[in-house]
Amino acid sequence: MTATAARTPAATTLRTGHRRLLEQLRADGVRHLFGNPGSSEEGLLDEVARFDDIDYVMGLQEAAVVSTADGYAQATGRPAVVLLHSGVGLGNAVGSLYHALHRQTPMLVMAGEAGVAYDALEAHMSVNLVDVAKPVTKYATRVTHPDSLLRLVRRALKVAATPPRGPVFLAVPQDVLDQLADEQVVPTAVPDTRVLPEPGAIQAAARLLASAHTPVILAGDGVAASGGSEELARFAEIWGAVVHGAMASELVMPWTHPLWGGLTGHMFGTDSAELVSHADAVLICGTYVFPEVFPDLGNPFRPGTAVVHVDLDPYAIAKNHPVTAGMVGDPRLTLRALTAAIEEAMTEPQRHAAAERVRRRAASRASALDKALADDVGAGGEPLQMTAVAAGLAALLPEDAVIFDEALTNSPALTRWLPPTRPGHFFQTPGGTLGVGIPGAIGAKLAHPERTVVGFTGDGGGMYTCQALWTAAHHGIAAKFVVCHNGGYQLLKDNLVRYRRDRGDHPGGAFPPFFDVRGPRVDYVALAAAMGVPAARVAHGNDLPASLAKMLDHDGPYLLEAVLDDPGDDS
Ligand SMILES: Cc1ncc(C[n+]2csc(CCOP(=O)(O)OP(=O)(O)O)c2C)c(N)n1
Ligand SMILES: [Mg+2]
Hints:
Helices cover 39% and strands 16% of the residues. It has helices at 2-5, 17-27, 42-48, 62-76, 86-103, 129-133, 149-161, 174-177, 199-210, 221-225, 229-239, 269-276, 331-345, 348-376, 386-396, 411-417, 437-447, 468-475, 490-502, 524-530, 544-553, and strands at residues 32-35, 55-58, 80-85, 107-113, 139-142, 167-173, 215-219, 242-245, 260-263, 281-285, 306-311, 325-328, 402-406, 426-428, 453-458, 480-485, 535-538, 558-563. The strands form three sheets. A six-stranded parallel beta sheet has the order 2-1-3-4-6-5. A six-stranded parallel beta sheet has the order 9-8-7-10-11-12. Strands 14-13-15-16-18-17 form a six-stranded parallel beta sheet, with helices on both faces. Helix 16 (411-417) links the parallel strand 13 (402-406) and strand 14 (426-428). The protein is globular. Bound molecules: thiamine diphosphate and magnesium ion. Its cofactor is thiamine diphosphate.
C-alpha cells in the first residue's frame, strides 16, 4: 500500500477512483446508476450526487434493483450499471443476477466493500464478493489497485456487451477508490462480433438442409440480439419451415407470421423433443437445445436428421446433443447468407414443395387462430377472464406499446390478443427467477419514456420485487402494471398434475394448500398505494373498458389488479 498511500488525497476528491470511475461510465454513455446504498460505498455515492448527467435510480431491495436494471438493459441493448452494498446487498441480488445471466442481459454490477486493508480482520459484513458473484455472472473480479480501476471497468463492460452478453461483477473496495488514480478515461472498445462463417461452410450447410421434407427451425435470443428477425422469417419462408422459439424471451419472428410455431416452453424436455420428432432437418440459431427445467436426456433428433447449429457462442453449439454441422457466426448475417445459399442449392421441385408447405401452414394456422380468438370472444363477466383483459388492452394500446410479460399461466391469453410483432417491444421472462414483470417494465419505461409500457405479473410473481413500485413512484416512471390475480401459484398446480400423470399417478386430487396465496389474499391495490402508486381493482368484464382506459390515461405509474378467480371467503 505504500506507493498508493502516498497519493491519498487530503481534502479533495477531484481525481480519486470514485471520480475516475464515474467519468469512465459517463464516457461510455451511462446515464443511470441503479442501486441501493450502504456505508461501504459512501465515497462513491457522495461523488454520484455531484454528477448531474448520471441519475441514481433508487431501489429499496437489491432483487428489485437488478431486475429494474435488467429491464432497462433489455430495452436499450446496452449494459445497465448497478451499484450494490457489499455481501448483504449482493446476496439479495443473486436470483435476479441468475435471471440476467440466462437472459444474456448486458449489465455491470458493482458492490462496495470497506477495503482490502481489512481483509484479514474479516470485518463486519465482509465476504468474498467475487465468490458470491461468480456462479451468476460471466466475469467477476475485484479491484485492488487504483491504477487498474478503469482497466477493469472497461474490461467488465466489454465482456458484458460481447455475445453471449451477460452480467459481470466488480468488487470496488472503498480504500482503493479513495486513492488518486492516474488512468486515462477512454471509451470502452467493444469488439465487433458480426462475423460470417466462410462461404464454403455456408454452402455445405445449405446443401445439407436443401432436401428436407419436414424442416424445423429452433431460434432463440441470439437472433433478437443480432437484429435478425427479418432474416429468420425470410429463411423460414424459403425453406418452408416452422419456427419455434427456444429460450426466446424477445421476439425472434412476428408471432403473427404463419410459420411461427410458438415457444418450446421451459419445463419439460419431452415436450420440446416432440416438436422435432418428425423433422428430417433442423436449423438451430441463436440458442441452445433445449433449455428446460426437466430436459430429456436422450437425443431429441431422430437418426439421420441433418442438424445445423449457428451461434456466436461456440459453447452453445452442440452443447447437449450432437449436430451435423456447427458454425460460429452472427445469426443475422449467417441467416442472410444461408438464405442466398439455399436458394441456390434447392432444386425447382424442392422450392415448389417448400412453398406448398408455407401455403398449407398459413391456411391451417389462420383457421386455428380464428377459432382460438372466437372461443375467447364473449369471455366477459365474472370471474374475469384474462382473454377479456388482453382483448380490452389490445383495443386501447398504441401500436408501439412495450409489453413486459411475466403473466405466466395467463401469458398464452395475453399473447393471443397482443401478439408480439415488432422487435424490441416484447420481453418475457425466460423462466426461472420470479419477480421480473414489475421492475422489468419500469426499466423498459425508463429506456423508452415516450412509449406506453405495460408490465404483467402474477399475484405470486408480483411479491418478489414489489418494492420496485416505490422506485416508479419516486422517479415518476410512468409504467403500467397489470397483476393477474388468480389466488396463488397456478403454474405449480399445472405442473403437479403433469408430474403425477408422468409418474402414472392419478393427476387429480387436492393440491398442497400452500400453492394458494389466500387467507389473506394479497391486496395489491393497498400494496401499490403504500408505495405511492395509484391502483384499482377490476373483477367484472363490464368494468374493464373504463378500468383499462383509466390506467392508460393516468399521468404516471399505475397498477391494475385483475381479479381472475372467485375470491370467495378469502378476500
Ligand atoms: C424466486 C422464485 N421463487 C419461487 C419460484 C417457483 N415458482 C415458479 S412459478 C411460481 C408461482 C407463480 O405464481 P404467479 O406469479 O401468481 O403465476 P401463476 O402461476 O398463478 O400464473 C412459483 C412460486 C420461482 N420460479 N422463482
Ligand atoms: Mg397466480
